């Protein structure tokens, strides 16, 4: 199985920055080349894939709404994936989830099979 633990959420003013972290563990994670992503969900809205990356780095995907503002990265030595969020907007307010897929990489939200419990990000106007 795969365990994903997010941290780093909080309250920030519009225009500010936050960095989310996700620590990954478990036998499935260690034994497979999994793709990683960050998804978010606001009340009344469907989950949206924000960013995706290969565990080895390199290939990335970003939703149009966050391009040029968010950056996804990995630290293999720490089994951690990050989401650096800059120039935050009130519409970025949501619960952010770290997720993993058995595919090496995916830009399709429905292909992510493993999820963390989420961390709340609130951006004030």
Structure notes:
With 125 residues, this protein is mainly beta. Helices cover 4% and strands 50% of the residues. It has one helix and eleven strands; from the N terminus they run βββαββββββββ. The strands form two sheets. Strands 2, 4, 5, 6, 9, 10 and 11 form a seven-stranded mixed β-sheet that branches. The protein starts with a strand and ends with a strand.
Query: Low-confidence spans: pLDDT under 50, at least 5 residues?
Result: none
Percentage of helical residues? under 10%
Overall geometry comes to globular
Q: What is the H/E order?
A: EEEHEEEEEEEE
How would a crystallographer describe the biggest sheet? 7 strands, mixed
Mean pLDDT level? 94
> Based on DSSP secondary structure assignment, what is the total number of beta strands?
11
Gyration radius (Cα, Å) is 13 Å
Strand residue percentage: over 45%
Structural class: mainly beta
Number of helices: 1
How far do the termini sit from each other? Answer: 40 Å
Give the SSE layout.
Blueprint lengths: L2 E5 L2 E4 L4 E8 L1 H5 L3 E7 L6 E7 L5 E3 L7 E6 L4 E6 L8 E8 L12 E2 L3 E6 L1
Parallel strand pairs: 2-11
Antiparallel strand pairs: 1-3, 3-8, 4-5, 4-9, 5-6, 7-8, 9-10, 9-11
Please tag this protein with its features:
four-stranded antiparallel β-sheet; seven-stranded mixed β-sheet; 1 helix; globular; 125 residues
Outline of the structure:
By secondary structure, the chain is mainly β.
């Amino acid at each position: 199985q795969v365990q994903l633990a997010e941290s780093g959420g909080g309250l920030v003013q519009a225009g500010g920055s936050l960095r989310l972290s996700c620590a990954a563990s478990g036998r499935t994670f260690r034994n497979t080349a999994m793709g990683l992503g960050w998804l978010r969900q606001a009340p009344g809205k469907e989950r949206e894939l924000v960013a995706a990356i290969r565990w080895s780095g390199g290939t990335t995907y970003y939703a149009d709404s966050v391009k040029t503002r968010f950056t996804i990265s990995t630290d293999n030595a720490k089994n951690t994936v990050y989401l650096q969020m800059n120039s935050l907007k009130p519409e970025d307010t949501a619960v952010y989830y770290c997720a993993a897929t058995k595919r090496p990489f995916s830009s399709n939200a429905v292909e992510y099979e493993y999820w963390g419990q989420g961390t709340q990000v609130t951006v004030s106007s």
